[in-house]
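Record 1 of the preview.
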Amino acid sequence: QVQVVESGGGLVHPGGSLTLSCVLSGGTFDRYDMGWYRQGPANKRELVARVISGGSSQYADFVEGRFTISRDNAKNTVILQMNSLKPEDTAVYYCNAYKRGTNYWGQGTQVTVSS
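->
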């Protein structure tokens, strides 16, 4: 059974940084496309960034160079480094693993950007 578990959310001031981590278990990590999504209080879940199994990454337009996604296949881990955080980045962030039409989601981790 594939599971993904996030960690690293919290409260940060505007302009601050946070690092989110996600560990996948129960599957061969390097065969999965991995991504981070977020959902704010009044918004649909939206893509933040993803890195495919081959290593290429893509970002949502709102990231504007502030976030970096990376994967460590040896540790079954995907990292989202978030810098220059803004209040509008406040949301629950979800880790996603995708392979062959099947999505696996973590439980989510809250990120709050507030002064």
